[in-house]
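Example (one chain per record):
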Amino acid sequence: MKYVNNKTLRRIKTLTELHGAPNFEAPVRSFLRQEMAPFVDTFVNDRMGGVYGVKKSKKDNAPCVMVAAHMDEIGFMITEITKEGFIKFTALGGVANDIWQGQRLKVRTNNDEEIIGVVANIPKHFRTGQEGAPKIEDLLLDIGAENDEEVYQRGVTIGDPIVPHTELHQLSEHRFAAKAWDNRYGCVIAIELLEALKDIELDVDLYVGANVQEEVGLRGAEAATQLIQPDIAFVVDCSPANDMKGRSGLSGQLGKGALLRIKDGTMLLKPAFKTFLLDVAHENEVMYQYYISPGGTDGGVIHKSLTGVPTAVIGVCARYIHSSDSVFDIRDYDNAKKWLMSTIHSLDETKIQHLQYGD
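Predicted structure:
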């Protein structure tokens, strides 16, 4: 029960297990630069922390195409260390209150050390029956310290980030469990897009990379867009699947292909862009599914930046995102990768102008 592409699996394992809460994406950024370096001409960085590898066209004044993932995952930040040696924290990103008791989380210190703890959970023996779901700010992380002095001695400080402690696990031939598939999916596909196009000449200048702080309000996307000044953009992001009881509208099913996001809370897909992507999918036998979401992606910021940047989201879905674990189907990733690569390869100035101004 092995996935055939061991290089892809290695990248997925490394990226999903890295510590990368919003505003603390340095480990993810470092890995992206390392993996992209052999396939790009140079890197550009915005001042918020976004990083993009650049593959230049040999054509003068080539159009600029942006492919944007985001590095960050949902997580927490330390707000207090109690005299008994427990750690209190606040949420970074959209997390539910009721799933964290008894879970293992890991703190990353200023010394880049990771310290694992368990979220306090009242045993049934001690419950009164009156307890409701606690708020995030009421939870306590137990790292085994006997008092606050011991916590500080281990290098833990107020403001340090916390993420789930979860390792990649293969569940079946095609399905895996991992934390942070939202959106290390985008980081993996960014690397592998550049790798696949390394020896292919393009009619566009290609900027491929990842933004910061998406999970706390799409904050890094604007800085990256201002830096790159793209003519069109693609966002690669992971979305929640709602298929536990079978098909449920356009809400994503595992194993049914990449997502074509036609509407969400921040963006509508332009008709010309939809037609273009569907043509590419059909020509290249890409399995895809339509998707609608009340949430949003970095596309919500990118598409209305500058004088308008036509933007499409090529995504995948996963179950249970924004929690300590998610379940995804690797076949959806393979279809998304094929779709994105075929789309980029087919772009030229005429097509881009149609996407910008066509109906």
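Caption: The chain has nine helices and 18 strands.
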